[in-house]
Write a structure and sequence with these properties.
about 290 residues, alpha/beta, Rossmann fold, GMP Synthetase, Chain A, domain 3, 6-stranded mixed beta sheet, about 30% helix, about 25% strand, binds guanosine-5'-triphosphate, binds magnesium ion, GTPase Era
Length: about 290
């Protein structure tokens, strides 16, 4: 069924950490695909989320908030960022009305000036402040940003209008992916991400950043999915913190991951967790490779 009016294309979402990029992508595609947390630098990969409608298929790319590299892992995150806007039809520059313009915002805008791809600015978190002047934000945008939208990614205000504006930039083209597909990533990946999300939400300071999760087994048995995963930490001293008194910490992570994954996959999921240490994995290229950072 070839529909010449069908649109299909790619949109990347760029912006500083913690500004709501993953929250927006999840809302646009109507599924919780990309993990979110109140902490910066939650997203570590470019995550493609696919929106399928009768008239279009849009592939969104949620990127890690890019920071100046402090350790090897952050360098990897930055590389992903510059890869994310190659061959896309539209860039969403995302910030929020509370903190804009930070040096970070200005740096990203400076970079966007020289990228010959259509751009839309999205200012998020309007639910947090009643009075704000749209002109103040619009005046600071370079010419490369043709439009600005003011939204709340958590509440949904302004998102339908943004969606319709984006559609104008998506070319007429047959779909790139099958219509049932929500992402190009395997279930294994989502299992790792939901476990990591629990850790980002339940633990503080360095723990979430010192953690990597690797699924070692993923099997279906008796109408259930069983997942064996290892939580990798950087130091022995972090182990008792994650495990908690009588295993209470680990149980909390497991319960959260099981609930999210059962919901996501539509079948019961059982998660089995182990905690192990790889000293300073964030700084070692061989460890990063083993843990799935290419
Ligand atoms: N009040 C409010 N909070 C929001 C809104 N959108 C996102 N947040 C919150 O902001 C925090 C960061 O959201 P994320 O979606 O993880 O941000 P991100 O830009 O993907 O962050 P990184 O992956 O670290 O780059 C979370 O606690 C969200 O719930 C919004 O519209 N209003
Ligand atoms: Mg994110």
């Amino acid at each position: 069924m070839d529909n010449p009016q069908f649109r299909s294309g790619f949109v990347t979402i760029l912006g500083k950490p913690n500004t709501g990029k993953s929250t927006l992508m999840n809302r646009l595609i109507g599924e919780k695909l990309s993990i979110t947390s109140p902490k910066p630098q939650t997203t570590r990969y470019n995550i493609k989320g696919i929106l399928n409608r009768d008239d279009c298929q849009i592939v969104f790319i949620d990127t890690p908030g890019y920071l100046k590299p402090r350790y090897k892992l952050q360098e990897k995150m930055q590389d992903l960022w510059s890869e994310s806007y190659k061959d896309v039809d539209l860039i969403l520059f995302m910030s929020d009305i509370i903190s804009f313009p930070t040096d970070y915002d200005l740096e990203v805008l400076e970079l966007l000036k020289n990228i010959p791809i259509p751009q839309i600015a999205v200012f998020n978190k309007i639910d947090l402040q009643k009075d704000y002047s749209r002109e103040f934000f619009i005046n600071q945008l370079p010419e490369s940003c043709s439009k600005a939208f003011f939204i709340s990614a958590t509440r949904g205000d302004g998102v339908p209008e943004l969606m319709e504006a984006m559609l104008q930039f998506i070319p007429y083209h047959p779909p790139y992916y099958s219509e049932e597909q929500l992402s190009d990533l395997p279930m294994r990946f989502f299992a790792q991400e939901f476990i990591r999300e629990a850790i980002f939400n339940y633990f503080s300071q360095e723990i979430p950043y010192s953690t990597a999760v690797l699924v070692e087994k993923f099997k279906e048995l008796d109408d259930k999915i069983h997942i064996d995963a290892v939580i990798w930490l950087e130091r022995e001293s972090q182990k008792p913190i994650i495990i908690g008194k009588n295993g209470a910490g680990l149980a909390k992570i497991r319960d959260y991951a099981e609930q999210q994954l059962t919901n996501f996959m539509g079948v019961p999921v059982m998660v089995h967790l182990w905690v192990k240490v790889k000293p300073k994995w964030r700084k070692k290229p061989s460890d990063l490779k083993e843990l799935g950072f290419k």
